[in-house]
Specification:
Largest interface: A-B, 51 and 51 residues
Radius of gyration of chain A: 20 Å
Oligomer: homodimer
CATH architecture of the largest domain in chain A: 3-Layer(aba) Sandwich
CATH class of the largest domain in chain A: Alpha Beta
Helix content of chain A: 40-55%
């Protein structure tokens, strides 16, 4: 096998959820498609790095190529979203999983992970002071913690409850209708929808 | 969702065997990986177009970056491969599927498809005169037809048998231990191995 083909198969196989056979199939398909289509594909991929950044307020994905007048993401900029309700998620992509349910009309806040003392991830690494400041200054009345249903995700929820409840903020947690350990962004929309409705106060 | 993210997800989803969720997961992983790793990935993909061509004798994949002294692929160039036995496959990637069995030590010949009159693919489009000429001039004694086990794959095998048998060449067909319609490059190595051993004369 030509070294270029071996290298491409290995690169494709390094993507999440792609086994060796799928990687080979994709590589062969790309060779067959030719340079023009392949270039179209790699261009689209490179736009991910150069064209996508995160909203400086909430951490959602935002196009880097918008004009100077637009600093925030489409959620933060929308006049139709409720500012009194804030959904806390681990990662930017979790926003789309919640958004697909159509159940939530508030704003989002990405904390970038979960509390994990052994990995050196404490409240500061997750920007907890910034979250508290945002909740206070924006007059948020309810914070919905939609971290993944893991031990750390639950612990992070309880930390946020302890942090914000003294200031009179209602802190809720999406119900775990999902199996413990299941990732939010891979869950069925229906399951996320149900767990939003059945959220419990912490 | 930023337009760049939507475009990337669509591009990834256009790859064979990738659904929408997998495409999203891959896109998010690439954003997370950052520009350096993404560039490494797209470089490897672009090498497929610029760095991989096909052997001018047999049609196998070959690195375009080899020196001028090496015109043919590693199969054609190998002194250890038997020149008396030729395995005919539809596509270059099918070679690796046969090669993985370790059962075949001859050379390969890629015809690029199967006979399909309704699509305008006849003997000339598959280079049948060139195949006949190669078999004649190289002194090939057996041609193993390893086209996919489809109606067209079988018909192509019979065409090759009719073409070469008058010249005293033995033409065999790999046994269909595989379900009709199953693609060769996705079959179990063991199944291909068995069908090579149980090949029948046409």
């Amino acid at each position: 096998m030509p070294p270029e083909l071996i290298a491409a198969i290995e690169a494709i196989q390094s993507l999440p959820g792609i086994g060796r056979r799928s990687a080979m199939r994709i590589a062969f398909e790309l060779i067959k498609a030719g340079p023009l289509k392949t270039r179209h594909f790699t261009n689209a991929i490179e736009q991910l790095s150069s064209g996508v950044s995160t909203c400086e307020r909430c951490g959602a994905y935002v196009s880097s190529r918008t004009g100077d007048d637009k600093t925030f993401c489409s959620f933060c900029d929308s006049p139709r979203r409720s500012v009194s309700s804030l959904c806390v998620v681990e990662n930017p992509w979790d926003i789309y999983a919640v958004e697909n349910t159509g159940e939530f009309t508030g704003l989002y806040h990405v904390i970038g992970g979960v509390l994990s003392p052994l990995d050196g991830i404490g409240p500061d690494e997750l920007g907890m002071p910034r979250l508290a400041e945002r909740v206070r200054s924006a007059g948020v009345s309810e914070v919905i913690v939609a971290t993944n249903p893991s031990v750390e995700g639950n612990a992070t929820g309880h930390y946020i409850a302890d942090l914000l409840k003294p200031a009179g903020v209602k802190v809720t947690r999406i119900a775990t209708g999902l199996a413990l350990g299941q990732m939010l962004d891979f869950a069925e929309t229906q399951a996320i929808s149900q767990s939003l409705r059945a959220r419990i106060e912490l």
